[in-house]
Amino acid sequence: MKEKQLLRDVNIEPTSAAIAEGLGLASDAYAIFLEKLKEHDVELTWRYYNDGKAWLGKGQYKWETIRGTPKETTALWLSIWEGFFKVTVYIPEKYRVEALNLSLSDDMNEMIMAAKQMGKLKFFPLVFDLYSNKMFDELLTIIDFRKVLK
To answer: Does residue 8 belong to any structural domain of this protein?
Structure first.
């Protein structure tokens, strides 16, 4: 079965009802994931991106410097698919070894080692297809790691 990305109409905003309908059984996991993001100080905002012709959730970590200057970094990108949601975390290539030193499963370390750098961009993507909350702990470890990278 071919995976189908949802929320592709610029005129239909990603409401809770539209997301829940598209996710089906994964909607409970999605609701839990949103709560976990709040606990990890990541704010998700939705925007339509013309280059991909879809609504994407941008998870940002915001903080203030010692002098009070507001700063933010993108911790993740989220998209809605038929029956699941996809979370992508872009890790700077220069931190690949540090990512491998996190307390993660062998499968997750293999995913980090196998991830290909994105062309000229100095990042590699970690993509999670989430149907349940099974991978949340490791994903949140990676998100917390990404939040502190500059």
So the answer is: no
